[in-house]
């Protein structure tokens, strides 16, 4: 489990960049948001259900950050006319998370 998340943070690509930014902001929200993912990454907790829940939460939070937080060089959230392209990027994030975590979850079951 921890190796799949390590791969997520080491990979290059737009979807991975979105998830990396979202994950760091997710973990920065406080210990109640980072405790379970860190226990999974460290191998302390071994629960496929918690892995799936945490991965989905991070992916969804990353998408929320994509739509609501300012981009580099801007003080404002993306304008409304950028939402169709952001929606495509959000689908790519979900697809990428599934391709990374799907085999891990399958192996853990």
From TrEMBL:
Keywords: Membrane, Transmembrane, Transmembrane helix. GO terms for molecular function: flavin adenine dinucleotide binding; squalene monooxygenase activity. The chain crosses the membrane at residues 39-66, 86-106. It comes from Suillus plorans. GO terms for cellular component: membrane. This is Squalene epoxidase domain-containing protein. Signal peptide: none annotated. Residues 2-69 form the Squalene epoxidase domain. InterPro entries: Squalene_epoxidase.
């Amino acid at each position: 489990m921890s190796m799949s998340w390590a791969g997520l943070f080491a990979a290059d690509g737009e979807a991975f960049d979105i998830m990396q930014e979202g994950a760091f902001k997710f973990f920065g929200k406080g210990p109640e948001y980072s405790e379970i993912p860190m226990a999974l990454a460290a191998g302390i907790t071994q629960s496929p259900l918690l892995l799936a829940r945490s991965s989905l939460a991070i992916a969804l939070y990353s998408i929320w950050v994509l739509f609501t937080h300012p981009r580099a060089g801007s003080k404002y959230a993306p304008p409304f006319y950028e939402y169709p392209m952001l929606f495509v990027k959000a689908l790519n994030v979900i697809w990428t998370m599934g391709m990374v975590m799907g085999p891990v979850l399958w192996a853990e079951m």
